[in-house]
Model the fold of this input.
Amino acid sequence: MRKYQLGEFEEIVMLTIAVLHKKAYGVAIKNEIQTRLSRKVSMGAMHSALVRLENKGFIQSTEGDSSEDRMGRPKKYYEVTAFGSKAIAHAKETRDSLWRSIPTVALKLKTR
Done:
């Protein structure tokens, strides 16, 4: 179903938001992805993905309290919506179905 389609990075971002639960804000999401996946993530790519996901209705944001260390700006926290949960479940089901369909012999590698 196209309405639930996620790109790989979008899926990673959404799963990370779910992992962080109520503590999911830009820098925390970026750091969690980098730590768990040993993958460099730019703040530009992170911001773009968050905007796309929010525009699609897969996540929603709320503002936290402002703080002096952020010059009075509040952190923006993210959570997965019910629609986003369906998209994640669809992605998992699709991947699981593909994995189950691969013949055992197809993944055996020749050794030299």
